[in-house]
Amino acid sequence: MVSEILLVGIGGFIGANLRYLVSGAIPRINEIPAGTLAVNTIGSFVLAALTFTSVEGTLRYMISVGMLGSFTTFSTFAYESFRLLDEGESKHFLMNIGLNLSSCLFAVYLAYIIV
Amino acid sequence: MGGFFGAISRFLIAGYFAPESGTLVVNVLGSILLGILMYSSEYLGIVSPKTRMFFGIGFCGSLTTFSTFTVQTFQMQLVEAAFNILANIILTLAGIFTGRALVIYIMRRREGTGF
C-alpha cells in the first residue's frame, strides 16, 4: 500500500511538471485556453491507450493513476471556463467546454480503435 | 512538489468511492480549493506566486483529473455518460463559484470587523 502511494506520488510529480511545461508553452487561441485543452487531450489519449491494453502493477500506479491523472486537470479547466462566463464571454465559455469534451472523448475513441 | 501530494490525495480520496463517483468527488473538491486560492490571490492579495504554483498548478491540478473522467465516460452507456458529463461540469463550475463566494464572505467579514 505504501509503495503504491509512493508510485502514485512520483508519477503525479512528473505529470504536474510536464503539464506546467506543455500548457505553459501554448498560448490562448482566440480566447480559448488552448494549453489546458492540449494537455487534457494528450493525457486522455495516452491513458485510454494504456487502459485498453490493460497495463497492470507498477506501471499502472505510476503512469496511469499518477502521471496521466496529474498531467490532465479538471480544476484549471473549470476555473478558466468560469472566468470566461464571468467576463461575459458566454460563446467562448460554451466553446471551451464543448472543445474539451469532444476533443478528449475523440482522443479516447481514437486510442480505442488503434489499440 | 504539489503534484506529488495532489496525486496521492486523489488516489486516497477517490479510492473511498466507486470509481466514477470518486472522480467526481476529487474534481469538485479540487475546483472548490482552486476557486478559493485564485480568488484569494486576486481579491485579498495574500497568496504569493510560489504558493499559487504549488497549490494551484501542482496540488489542485493533480488532485483533479480530466483523463480518467473521459476514459470512464467513454466506457459508460449513453444516458449514464451524459449524466456523468453534466454532473462533472456543473458541479466543478459550482465549486469554483463556491470558492469565490467563500473568499468574498471572508473579505466582507474582515472589512466589517475593521481588520
From TrEMBL, chain A:
Membrane topology qualifier: Multi-pass membrane protein
Compartments, as annotated in UniProt: Cell membrane
GO cellular component: plasma membrane
Biological processes annotated in GO: cellular detoxification of fluoride
Catalytic activity: fluoride(in) = fluoride(out)
Coiled coil: none
Protein activity control: Na(+) is not transported, but it plays an essential structural role and its presence is essential for fluoride channel function.
GO MF annotation: an example: fluoride channel activity
Positions annotated to bind Na(+): 69, 72
Chief location of this protein within or outside the cell: membrane
Key words, A-Z: Cell membrane, Ion channel, Ion transport, Membrane, Metal-binding, Sodium, Transmembrane, Transmembrane helix, Transport
Record-annotated membrane-spanning stretches: 6-22, 34-55, 61-81, 93-114
Family, per entry: Belongs to the fluoride channel Fluc/FEX (TC 1.A.43) family.
Function: Fluoride-specific ion channel. Important for reducing fluoride concentration in the cell, thus reducing its toxicity.
HAMAP family: FluC
Protein name in the entry: Fluoride-specific ion channel FluC
